[in-house]
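Dear colleague,

As promised, here are the two records you asked about, laid out in our usual form so they can be pasted straight into your sheet.

NAME FIELD: protein one
SEQUENCE, THEN STRUCTURE:
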Amino acid sequence: MSHKNGITVARMAVALPLALSLSAVQAASNASPGDPLAGSIAEALHGTSRNIRVQVVDGTVYLYGVVDTYAQRATIEDRATAAAQGHKIVDSIEFSPS
């Protein structure tokens, strides 16, 4: 691989996650406030972790936030799936030990 191709690959490795993150933020901004599905999932997640945000856009449930352990993330995803009544879950929860 030439130096020029290496730089292009590195730029793509940085640009793609950024574009995907911006896409998720764009979708989340279109969510309806007070969505009953989002409310029932947020209630199911109460006490599982710090600051998990739930948004529903076009029937898809988006989870955002940060957890300390992978076990917390798994618990949150399990509870959200159970409360989602068959709707698709997109888990964008990050892992960051405190």
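NAME FIELD: protein two
SEQUENCE, THEN STRUCTURE:
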Amino acid sequence: MNTTIHVTIDKQTKEKAQKLAKEMGLDISTLVKASLRTFVDTETFHVEKSDRITPRLKAIIAQARKEYAQGKSFGPFSSKELDKFLLK
């Protein structure tokens, strides 16, 4: 037997959630159901959008670009050049 949950949330959050879910090929109902099932199965709560770059990764990329500009690093490589460099 199924049951219904009513949730009150501000309009802006709902709209942003709907947009993000749609980008991921989901609707809000599917997202909520999957989240609750995962929460029950794992007894944990974790959410992420994997294609976002974290501030830490941004800093690493910026540092690598700086080092490359200063001639302190190697690259960019084609896949063949990378294989040759790594297999030396």
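A couple of things worth noting about protein two: The CA atoms of residues 59 and 65 lie 10 Å apart. The helical segments are 11-23, 28-42, 55-69, 79-86.

Best,
R.
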